Queue: 4 jobs
Job 1
Amino acid sequence: MAGISLSGLASGMDTNSLVSSILAAEGTGRTRLANQQTQMEQRASTLQSIQSKLSALKTASSALRSVTNWVPTQTVETSDASMLAATRTGGAGAGSYVIDIKSLASSSQKTFTFNSPAADGTLSFGATSVNISAGATIDDAVSAINQAGGDVIAVNAQGKLVVSSATTGAASTFAFSDSGGSTLALDSERLGRDMEYTVDGGASVFSATNTAKDALPGLDITGKKLGVASVTVGAPGPDKDALASKMKAFVEAYNSVLDAAHAATTEKPVKDATLQIDIKKGVLFGDQGLSRMVSQLRIGMSDAVAGLSGTLTSMADLGITTGATTGGATSSPDSLKGKLVFDETKFKAALDANPAGVRELLGAKSGTDGFAQKFEGLLAPQLGSGSGITDRIEQVNSQVSRLKTSLVKFDERLSTREDQLRKQFAAMETALAAAQARQADLTSRLSSLSNNN
């Protein structure tokens, strides 16, 4: 207690240590409460982590039944991506097309010998005109031309002034003029050219740029080098790669829940733990609530979906299984846990063979509940307010709150007890000191009387 310091001078006892020992003995219950609080907080944290993973699983399940997955699209592939690229701009005719790139588009270009002008003058290239001062260098001319921001671009190429049109194509040619008449001397000229290509051996088609807009209905073709390559346009249908990615995301989210639940229920508590890291271990060991939840999810994954019109009735038909081996082989640890694997090849084969059946099974067919709706029905009790894992978290948090209150009251009792002990020992020391003083006085008086006799 602040304000009372016990020295033990009168009694000869180490009263400070004695008070500390008494408080330590009476405070053993506090350690138990504090450890319970640590365990409850760890339990809440673990349950919240699993809850978060369940929410992510619900989101992944909802993504499977989204109708946007079935907006028609078409794949576009080229046999040689280094030769040409094809981009779909709209609906395109399904099939393969042979594209022959005969020439690539280029810009008009003029190369000049530059002579420093003796007087101010003007240089013009098409619609771009720049003023050149007397004594200007070739670099001055390059800078002036490019800063003008016109339809040409200039460079200093090993002492030659090279001016190119900013655009490509046969129509990109430009005239030039030199007001002084002696600053520029034309050395060479290259005319602009269009990209020339054919489709399926037909007549040549020309484009002012290397990207031919609507070379085929719904397709832009970009030439990269000369040669022949094919472009294949798929039939309209769902984006198989995007759907496969959502299936993978669902599997990953599901496995994440199982991993977290397995880790929580199999970690054993440490007996007589004193370190915080050990006190936190095994707080959900053998937890029946989590075990039941995992069992329900596993049953939901394996059961067929009732009420569907097609032959595809379970996620195994779409390539999602536990991956367990059959026959005499040994199942893997992951398959024993119920973790899922995804066979993308099988999924895409089912999608090619029966897209309507896949859509119905996943739950994206209007008016029909598929796998996603059924699975989300299993998750709802866990995530709903006042039930499942949400309710458990609330209960644990209430226990944590009660333990915190108990610890505060315990500390208050210990503080009061410390005050009492220190006051009692202080009173004892005072009484002892007074008694010792009276004894010393009596001894002194008796000694004086004895001496007088």
Job 2
Amino acid sequence: MLIEPDTIELFVPPDSAGQRLDRFVADAVADLSRSYVQQLISDGRIRVDGRMARSSLSLRGGERVLVTVPPPQPSALVPESIPLQIIYEDPDVVVVDKPAGMVVHPAPGHVGGTLANALLARYPDMQVNGSVRPGIVHRIDQGTSGLLVVARHDRAMQALTEQQRARTMLKIYLAVVEGRFKEPEGVIDAPIGRHPADRLRMAVTPGGREARTHYHVREELGSYTLLEVRLETGRTHQIRVHMLHRSRPVLGDPVYGGRRQRPSFGLSRQFLHAHRLGFQHPADGVWREFESPLPADLQAALARLRAAARV
């Protein structure tokens, strides 16, 4: 029952005895994620029988809980009306086919023109953790095209983030790499961290975070190979770093492709495309899967590679 525009009154039923305060509130209020509830508790905006409490408070049953939700805070993001290719949208999630060249989120050197700016203009009701902004669940490099999912509210963000953490989200890329593989498929299991000499790059390093990349050879193209790559983990630049680690850099990669002159096959960026994306929908748990064909520039490069392989 609403007693003020921004205050929700809850009564703890007997069957919720023993439940943590943060979990009880998150379950009772559909639009609040558990992480946001914990933030509200920390800010003193959730009181139990008139007193401040901890997130871990074990409820007895019968308590009166007041949840004061502040109005969403404006974010530093500026909405920008930029065309987007939307593959799927509903009140919970948006699946976008990002073009190469677009940065996902503002960063030094890229304060505007990003996917986040465009999403906020198209969906001004997006709100995550009390701020008006899109829920960026995972990112794709600026020079990479393809699919990503965005949460429209806290609950969706939490559900999708948990799937990422549990490694149940499906993320499959198409990539052309230099060289060929002896085996038709395999797994690259090598930890990734900051490059010891170049902090702007990533590298396979003993002190890095666990990283696993599954690959399957789809087509041999002379001295190049078209791969289908599935990410088990989601480290920064993972595919590009792992392929370089195997001495099979991604074709056209300006950072991890090495310095010697190579044929470009008309490419102005790396041949890497987020081709398939799958996840359990946050609202109903039903598996959704989406596919994006190779964009025109990669199709043209692939045609040139096939023609060169036939010579």
Job 3
Amino acid sequence: MAYLSIRERYSYLFSDLARLSHEAGIIDDHNVYQEANAETRAILYKVIAENLHDGSCLEGREHFAEFLQQLKAGKHGLILAEHYSNMDLPLLCYLLEQDKGDFGKEIAARIVAISGKKLNEENPMIKAWAEGFSRIVIYPSRSLASVTDPEELARGRKINLAATRALSTVRRNGQSVLVFPSGTRYRPGKPETKHGVRETDSYLRIFDIMILVSINGSILRICEDEPDNMLADLVVPDTVVMAASPVMYCKQFREEVNASLASSSSEAIDLKQKHVDRIMELLALQHEQYEKIRLSKAPPLLI
């Protein structure tokens, strides 16, 4: 079956998105925090509703509810999620808001995602879609490491310093921060895109609690012929199951990983990377568990 790209399927929405979009196309140290745009969010939710199959749902609802309860008690909360497409955050918020429980809408309203600058700077339409959700925009470490131009390097450092300040404000305000520990979307056949980014450990150090969110199914898939063109991503109707792990305490998690490595004979263990590696292992196990549930709700797609 042939699927249409975002550009082909939803170009008729582009004029409305352009009219309603208001965030800057270039990121600097003055605009790293971007509040959700309710108008572009509503358009994106219509796209989701058109492509989400029956059986799509949240699993681990009691864990989401416990997470919210601890946020209300003053804990600083972190969401670490798998990353398959630019629809991951919109889908999570949509499913939370559609849930009949009394926790979903409030969690969705509290989520602030850590987002790479590419979503703002790549294309005006991608920016308009992305700005439907509250974000702190960063200059990704992988990108910054390859920068040789002094001015661009200085820009990246200023952006990330401002993002650190914004993160502190968000924590104090009782919002929850969502991070994709892989730092990039997973691409089939490229296992390195599921490798956890070492810098994720810096979030574990400053947050109290965390949940892991696995993502099974996606209504948007990277086009193999144009993997770097986000507007070429394919719209694929699907059944999506998103699941939360039990709430974990970040400090305890890091200490337990350290303890498991205490008997290692290696003298060059990168503990920060090991913490993130364990996160990715747990996400993979959770994904496998809930894929069985997803397939029981709908047949797999022939793609």
Job 4
Amino acid sequence: MLAVTGEGGMASVQLEQVRKTYPNGFVAVHDATFEVADGELLVLVGPSGCGKSTLLRMIAGLETISSGRLRIGDRVVNDVAPKDRDIAMVFQNYALYPHMTVGENLGFGLKLRGLARADIASRVDDAARTLELGALLDRKPAVLSGGQRQRVALGRALVRQPQVFLLDEPLSNLDAKLRLSMRVEIARLHRQLKATMVYVTHDQIEAMTLGQRIVVLKDGVIQQVDTPMALYRHPANLFVATFLGSPAMNVLRGRLHRSDGLRLDLGDRTSIPLPATDIPDAWLGQEIAMGIRPEALHVAGSHEPSFAPEVEVVEPIGSDVFANLRFGSQGLVARFSPETLPAVGDVLPLSIEAGALHFFDPESGVRRPLSA
């Protein structure tokens, strides 16, 4: 197995109030503060233009830091050249040399660093074995599949034996099937190497399945940092709530009131009965944004409080059925098991699972915690 030791072993990465401001005054990253633990796989996720790649490039030294402090291990590296940071980066476009074989691509960086030929050969062989590239070492990139090229790009980072791996949307050029297999490959590789990795993606499925923790970004501002399931179950705001999860969380806007139990008045002569929830009395009569995950909606039993939306679109995907629904002026999506296969035009009596409601401020979008 390939040993990843780096010059100082694995390392944590610490960002303290790191900011990136361009000469025209545009702030791409606002005072980012978080730590990547030694050996952790941390994912930076958010929509295009949110600042995640800029953050990664600042860690790599490819972008200057306008203010704040960046540490890799025990060193402050704000002014350290990229080649001296002991990091290796994997790019979206593979960046392989077309005239070199796979073996030459893997060893080229080590050759530039002046390593002995025997050491280069040993590291290349180890990386090829780890990534199952042994049969491809004499081939040129042009004859490789996208997945094979991405494995070579990963291998080129592996042979460096860096303290930190940085991966910038490495799977975005692959088709859906290859993305799935490469996600598994990267997760296996991380578990095998116990390497510190920072992984950038715009794909929330990649983020949820790969990250031990996730940093969610919007407009250069960190929205929340937590484990995938903590983000899913306790999103800090509406952006996190609707960005993570597929299909996205349903968000209904209305006023809470009590009439034969708790209800959400949607303002168009419709209301939804809610499961018993201990809300503060001060919320009653106020505008609120309420979130419901699609899997929290189920066909109501005969004695359950229910509402009856109309089915507009049905999407069976084998393991699940997604139903796009309309209730008054509000649209919702429900996730059912394959045994529940409604037809377009059906009016379904639905209930909401107990404990499944999320409440947010309708203006700021910030989560409103329930009373203890």
